[in-house]
Amino acid sequence: GENVEQHPSTLSVQEGDSAVIKCTYSDSASNYFPWYKQELGKRPQLIIDIRSNVGEKKDQRIAVTLNKTAKHFSLHITETQPEDSAVYFCAARPELRNQFYFGTGTSLTVIP
Amino acid sequence: GAVVSQHPSWVICKSGTSVKIECRSLDFQATTMFWYRQFPKQSLMLMATSNEGSKATYEQGVEKDKFLINHASLTLSTLTVTSAHPEDSSFYICSGQIHSYNSPLHFGNGTRLTVT
Asked: How would you classify the pairing of strands A10-14 and A106-111?
C-alpha cells in the first residue's frame, strides 16, 4: 500500500518567516495530494490540495509543489502568523483506490 | 458547507462494554465515510472505508468484529467498539466524502474514547 513520510515532525519559525513541510510517497499511482491543518482539539481542515497533472498551486500565503518524478510534495507557508501554529498533515490518494494515506504530521509553532 | 457532526465528543466506558460513535453529514450526502484512529502526537491511521449500503473495507490489522461499522444511509455512519479494552483508548475521527474519488475529505470533530 501507499506509504507517506513527512518531515520535519516539529518546526518552529519566527513570525513573518517562511515554513516548509515536505512529504514523500511510495505509490507512483497516487494522483491527489491534500494538506490538512489541525488546531489543538479541533478537526483537520483542508487547506490546499494538488493533483498530479499540476506542478504547483498557490492560495494566498500557502503554496504546494509536486514533483512526480521524485515522488515528493511540499507545503510552503510564507509570512507566517501565530494563527498558523497547528499540526499539518499531508496525504496521498492512489489512483483507482479511494483511500487516503496520511503523513505523520508536522507540529508548526510560529513564535510572535 | 460540508459539515460532519460526530458524537459523542468524548466517552468513558468500562472494559468489556461497547461504545457507539456516530457521524452525520449535515449538509451533504457522504457516499463514502472513512474512519481513522489517532494516537497522541501521531498521524491519522485509516481503520476502514465504508460506502453507503455496502460492507466496510477494513485495513490490515483492524479487527472487523471488534470495530463494527455501519453506513446505512448517505448521512449517517456509525462505529461501534465492541468489548472495549484499555488499549482501545484513543481518538477516533470520521471523515465523509461527497461523490467519492475526486472529492476531499470533511472531518468530524472526533471522539476521545477512554476505556477504564
From this structure: parallel
